[in-house]
Design goal:
about 325 residues; alpha/beta; UDP-N-acetylmuramoyl-L-alanine:D-glutamate ligase; four-stranded mixed sheet; 9 helices; 13 strands; binds adenosine-5'-triphosphate; binds magnesium ion
């Protein structure tokens, strides 16, 4: 079966504060608009590797929306699942870096066009062509969106497809109660779970459980593959009877946005395509490193050739 991956969620524009610690409390210079949204970056990275990639989303009837659709199409993403709506403008995010590790956001997402995405926007014939569904936690910001995720999970599983889940928790979004509730439901159907090191603790009932204990517990509960992203420390892969760890590739960190999305897209694509798990992890690790070395959320996606060249340095 050939790999065909779909994602559902925010397709937005991002504006990046030009200076460190610039913040949002006084006028300053911003770079952008850049096409963005975690599921959109993920979808672009899947397509860039040469796999079938479909994104379901909504954009407004405006230049931001047009730019985003054109960009994704140019990267090879199937954009037939993107609906242009008149009710609201394309979503946006403003980002300012405090330092290499901490960012602040101002999101305009739940009330933007992509906040209107609901199950009726998911074309069933398009969905039935997909063998895998990837879920981004950052997209679980409304009941409509969560209902859409449920519809896709049901359909994909009915067709013997697989599901991956990256919690992608943003502190600015954790006060959305729908999001927490959806986590438990989604985990039940998750085949490949891709949390960051700092996120794994959201997935345990016990307060002080160690990472090892949480991983064990998740695998006992039916999650087949767990990949933990550790930023500049690399990544780990866990399976019932296997464990792999990889150190990151040394690069100059320019902009960490999108690293986790590119990493996830590369791991899931190659793993599903039948590459050995060691190679999927190695390529994903390189894909994340390449993403942080480029400025702009979607500007750091890479092809198989880019990755192979980078690893051969
Ligand atoms: P995001 O903020 O995009 O959600 P994340 O927390 O999901 O990120 P990270 O752990 O930051 O994901 O990055 C994903 C992967 O990218 C890491 O596991 C690693 O392979 C690679 N990576 C991230 N940061 C660096 C870095 N500074 N140097 C080299 N590789 C990196
Ligand atoms: Mg992430």
């Amino acid at each position: 079966m050939s790999v065909s991956i779909c994602t559902i969620g925010e397709l937005i524009v991002e504006f990046l504060a030009k200076h460190k610690n610039q913040g949002f409390s006084q006028p300053g210079e911003f770079l952008g608009p850049f096409p963005s949204g975690a599921p959109a970056i993920y979808a672009a990275q899947v397509a860039k590797l040469g796999f079938e990639s479909t994104l379901f989303s909504c954009v407004g009837n405006d230049d931001f929306g047009q730019m985003n659709i054109e960009r994704l199409r140019n990267e090879g993403v199937n954009t037939d699942g993107i609906t242009v709506i008149n009710k609201a403008p394309t979503g946006s995010a403003f980002v300012s870096y405090r330092n290499q590790f901490e960012r602040d956001f101002i999101f305009n997402i739940p009330n933007s066009a992509c906040g209107y995405l609901s199950p009726e926007h998911l074309d069933e014939s398009l969905l039935s062509r997909c063998t895998h569904f990837h879920i981004m936690g950052s997209s679980l910001f409304s009941f409509r969106m969560i209902d859409s995720m449920r519809k896709a999970i049901k359909m994909i599983k009915k067709n013997n497809g697989t599901v991956s889940f990256d919690p992608n928790v943003r502190k600015e979004m954790m006060n959305i109660p729908e999001m927490q509730q959806a986590f438990d439901y989604i985990l039940e159907y998750t085949d490949i779970f891709l949390p960051s090191e700092g996120e794994i603790h959201y997935f345990s009932d016990q307060k002080n459980a160690s990472e090892t204990d949480i991983v064990k517990q998740l695998i006992n509960n039916g999650v087949k593959h767990i990949v933990i992203k550790r930023g500049a420390e690399g990544a780990s892969y866990y399976h019932a009877n296997q464990e792999l760890h990889i150190k990151s590739n040394a690069v100059e960190m320019i902009d960490p946005t999108g690293a986790g999305d590119c990493f996830g897209a590369t791991f899931v694509s190659l793993f599903l395509a039948g590459y050995p798990v060691e190679q999927a992890l190695k390529y994903a690790n390189a894909s994340g490193a390449l993403a942080v070395s480029r400025s702009g959320p979607m500007e750091g996606i890479s092809s198989m050739e880019d990755i192979a060249k980078f690893l051969a340095r």
